[in-house]
Amino acid sequence: MKDKTDVKINNIMPCVPTRDLVVFPGMSMHFDVGRPRTIKSMKNAMDGDQLVFLCAQKDVYLEMPEKKDMFKVGTVAKVRQIVKAPDGIYRCYVEGLRKARLAEFYQYDDCYEADVRLVPNYSKDRLDDDEQLAVFRSVLDEFEEYVQVVPKMPEELYAQILGSKTPVQLFESLAFNIPLAFTDRQSLLEAPSVSDKLILMVTILSRETNVLSLERRIHSQVHSQIEESQREYYIREQIKALQNELGENEDGSDVNEIDEYTHRIDSLVLSEEVRDKLMGEVRKLSKMGMMSQEGVVLRNYLDTVLALPWNAVTKDRTDVKKAKQILDKDHYGMAKVKDRILENLAVRALTPDVKGQILCLVGPPGVGKTSVAKSVARALNRNFVRVSLGGVKDESDIRGHRKTYVGAMPGRIMNAMKLAGSKNPVVLLDEIDKMSNDFRGDPSSAMLEVLDSEQNNAFRDHYIEVPFDLSDVLFITTANTLDTVQAPLLDRMEVIELSSYTREEKFHIAKEHLIKKQEGKNGLKASQIRICNDAIYKLIDSYTREAGVRNLERQLGSLCRKAAKEIVEDGVKKVTFKADNLEKYLGHEKYLPDVVSDKDAVGSVNGLAWTSVGGVVMPLEVLVLDGKGRIELTGSLGDVMKESAKIAVSYCRSVADKYGIDKDFYEKKDLHIHAPEGAVPKDGPSAGVTMITGIISALGNIKVRSDVAMTGEITLSGKVLPIGGLREKTMAAYKAGVKTIIVPFANKGDLDDVDDTVKLCCEFVFAKTIQDVLDVALVPNSKNNVPLELLSKNEPERKKLTV
């Protein structure tokens, strides 16, 4: 039978630099490969003749070794199996064949190769038979001593080594199975003859025996010292107990501590359950030593529980007028939020025992959700504390950890109550929509008890372990969206929506709040800087585009800093910013205004759209071409807008006669509908009236008024359905200089939310049907093949709908 090492071996083969690993000839083993080059080298070997040169590197932490970093002797091995693990690591099974010397080491972009020279696994022995026998017995004797100190060697391995018949068998049994340092294994590999290897093995076993014996002695000494210290501890505790009985306690520290805890518990008005629990913990503490670990845990627990505001209550302000002044001073607008808070005050004035108000402020970033909560606390004369919930994944963050764990602490709710210092604070739960869950639990589910007025009068934190009344707390939560909030959690909150600020609101906020704030931050006096009204409007229109006012505040801060620089550097007494010199300080305009044509045009209609940063004017263009009735929609339109286009075309076919449109246009003409700014996605049903107006204008060659903007969803029968975001859309139309705004009749009630400036400057037309829209938007002209009386027959009715 052919020997397994009698295989044809090329001089140049794949090479794997091993870390903390030495493979001997005749040895089979598993090891992991994780570096990209070594993985490729193993794959190359597997794809070729399955031979690889395994050579240990001197520094195990070196990621990309060179030849100088490698040992000179390694092992040629046969790769039997490579399996990829789920974490990307490859598990390899190899069988050592021949010892070899590294002649050259090649590094490529993706793998390693080596030029090797085979050397005998065991060179000719320089010792005679008697000397070899002496070495053999010395190894066995040293192994017997090694076994006495090594922990738990398997019986099978022990019998195998002692039953070795030849020096080679003895060496391989020891080298393959005994845990040795990889440097020792490398030295054993490099030793030429079996006698040299065994002599080196005697040295290694002797050293390991001495080290293990020393470790055992040190462990025994440490153990005896611990026992001695415990003995002293018990004796000292007995002495202390005897001294207490005799009244001879020298410092009385323990007794005073127990009395202090007892006094603090007695001074609080607590339920029987809480009092019994705390007194039980105090009794446990009295039986423990000062330095015991459990005593430290109990002290921390008692200090934490007694620091909670069990009885501390602040007196609510019941003066509604005073509270309204505070809210108006801190924030401009926000009528719904202010009304809700004032209603809460009025109810408390009538029924002071009312419990469990949980408000949820929902709106885009920067509209003042967090700051309005602070104003609410000030208006109510309550303490305020903020709890950030963004990124919370662990239920223990809400409920706390049990005190038996090392480093246990109460949850965020109890910690907030401790920081508030009163039983009835305003607690802001910020970013409640940013909570998530993982294998540690669902914090949203833990919040269900906190925000349930029927349950939170006995909230149990895992660390506190006793019920705490949260029913007097006014919880205010904030969120950017409600999509990620669990339905049961949302059901426990009263949702108040904060929409994006209009242009006028931003102007007043900047004028009344932000400029003063930034002047103070940048060390300026009101007499040193002046920001004109037109400059504020230009900042809002041309340098920021957002739902809130954060970027506007940053731009105002930038102007204040530039003013401070001129005052200090050039000695200027006062810096004035106007609309025409903003570009000098802030650079070119970042945002261009919505473009509205100043001329009536065919097929061009001004639509209105809502975005997360406010409303915009969305022009819609329709072009009629000779074709076969295709409808081309461009401008990154969504599925809902595409459906609106189909409805619009169908309706136009039904009223083609009224506007002199060829009945067969859907077979002979192609329609191209385009919404400019094609890179911006657009969707929603509110462009329906805009599409119908544009298609009828383009097919009938009728001009559309350029000073009219419109919004509304349509049906196949021509009814105009209500839309959302009227406040923002109308502000966009006002900014663009539109004089007439067409909105659905069903949105007439929403006019209360529209800014007063817009209502004064713009004419509103409330349309019940698409005919109402066309009567206003299309320009009457006898040259358009449409009778003037057709476009104006509903004029009296239109005026009735106009405000």
From TrEMBL:
One Gene Ontology term from the biological process aspect of the record: proteolysis
Induction: By heat shock.
EC numbers on record: 3.4.21.53
GO MF assignments: serine-type endopeptidase activity
Signal peptide annotation: none
Active-site residues, Swiss-Prot/TrEMBL: 686, 729
Intracellular or extracellular location(s): Cytoplasm
Chief location: cytoplasm
Lon proteolytic domain sequence ranges: 599-780
Family annotation (Pfam families): AAA, Lon_C, Lon_lid, LON_substr_bdg
Domain Lon N-terminal: residue ranges: 13-209
Reaction equations catalysed: Hydrolysis of proteins in presence of ATP
Chain sites annotated for binding ATP: 363-370
InterPro entries on file: AAA+_ATPase (IPR003593), ATPase_AAA_core (IPR003959), Lon_bac (IPR027543), Lon_bac/euk-typ (IPR004815), Lon_lid (IPR054594), Lon_proteolytic (IPR008269), Lon_Prtase (IPR027065), Lon_prtase_N (IPR003111)
Family named by the database record: Belongs to the peptidase S16 family.
Oligomeric form and interacting partners: Homohexamer. Organized in a ring with a central cavity.
Its biological purpose: ATP-dependent serine protease that mediates the selective degradation of mutant and abnormal proteins as well as certain short-lived regulatory proteins. Required for cellular homeostasis and for survival from DNA damage and developmental changes induced by stress. Degrades polypeptides processively to yield small peptide fragments that are 5 to 10 amino acids long. Binds to DNA in a double-stranded, site-specific manner.
Protein name: Lon protease
Organism: Ruminococcus bicirculans
Higher taxonomy: Bacteria, Bacillati, Bacillota, Clostridia, Eubacteriales
Gene transcribed to yield this protein: lon
